[in-house]
Design goal:
This protein is of the alpha/beta class. The protein has two domains: 189 residues, P-loop containing nucleotide triphosphate hydrolases (Rossmann fold, 3-Layer(aba) Sandwich), CATH 3.40.50.300; 88 residues, Helicase, Ruva Protein, domain 3, CATH 1.10.8.60. The protein is built from 14 helices and seven strands. The chain has a five-stranded parallel β-sheet with strand order 2-3-4-1-5, sandwiched between helices. Strands 6-7 form a two-stranded parallel sheet.
Length: 291
């Protein structure tokens, strides 16, 4: 090996075009700084591994199976999509597609049903990423007639034997995922990258809400912004809060109240501003403020 050979790391980085994916992550996803940093670290390691191979260094295939943990609505699926792009651009994924499944897509309801279901999903995912949401539901130790363990065994075999052609991402609540991994050490040992998604702050959720409205050509008045921030803080204290998903649902209801408000003043001449503006009253009429 000629140690005098040099590589222009910037040039190699530009060749991959993964910066475009990082830009999308930064522009489309509010907050999540530790997640974005972790994804950059993974991408950096993969790029350097490629360069090491170019120099003739021996290098084992990096472990690419991942675990995404966090509350609902924290961007796990969105980041998985971008991870698929990164792996494809770096040459670690043959097709670069993402298949999202849950327990119902993998586990059958009777003997002999699970294996063909799981294998069919794996066949579709080959060359890309298989994203298993709420993965802990695959394991139900209290139910002797449950076939989730069979699906896990098939997944383990494929994760080991075909790891160069399939990446699996397990996702779900952090505490439940930890118990899931404890139940199967073989599964845990095959996952090299654990990424935890933090909950959003109220201010980050307000920003996310404004982006959602802009995409639908709506906007909040200044007063409505402050009222909606108050709504977010109250909603975060309630059960079943799901971060960005709950914000989207709240805005859908605010749009319905805005439409009803406009309908009730049907004799009024409408302006463009009327049609695109969410007022504070459209949020204040939420049951959250009246319970």
């Amino acid at each position: 090996m000629n140690r005098s050979i040099k590589f222009d790391i910037q040039k190699e980085y530009q060749k991959t075009d993964i910066q475009s994916v990082f830009d999308i992550l930064e522009n489309e996803l509010v907050g999540l700084k530790p997640v974005k940093n972790r994804i950059r670290e993974i991408a950096a390691l993969l790029l350097i591994d490629k360069l090491r191979k170019s120099f003739g260094f021996l290098a084992s295939s990096p472990g690419l199976h991942m675990s995404f943990t966090g509350s609902p609505g924290t961007g796990k699926t969105s980041v998985a999509l971008r991870m698929a792009d990164i792996l494809y651009k770096l040459g670690y994924s043959r097709k670069g597609h993402l298949i999202t499944v849950t327990r119902d897509d993998l586990v059958g309801q009777y003997i002999g049903h699970t294996a063909p279901k799981t294998k069919e999903v794996l066949k579709k995912a080959m060359g890309g990423i298989l994203f298993i949401d709420e993965a802990y539901y695959l394991y139900k130790p209290d139910n002797e007639r449950d076939y989730g363990a069979e699906a896990i065994e098939i997944l383990l075999q494929v994760m080991e034997n075909q790891r160069d052609d399939l990446i699996v991402i397990f996702a779900g609540y952090k505490d439940k995922m930890e118990k899931f991994y404890e139940s199967n050490p073989g599964l845990s040992s095959r996952i090299a990258n654990h990424v935890n998604f933090p909950d959003y702050s109220p201010e980050e959720l307000l920003k996310i809400g404004k982006i959602m409205l802009e995409e639908q050509q709506y906007k909040l008045t200044e007063d409505a912004e402050q009222v909606f921030l108050g709504y977010i803080k109250k909603r975060m204290q309630k059960p079943l809060f799901a971060n960005a998903r709950s914000i989207r649902n709240a805005l859908d209801r605010a749009r319905m109240r805005q439409a009803n408000r406009i309908f009730e003043s049907i004799d009024k001449v409408l302006t463009k501003a009327d049609l695109i503006t969410i007022a504070s009253e459209d949020i204040l009429k939420s049951s959250l403020f009246n319970s």
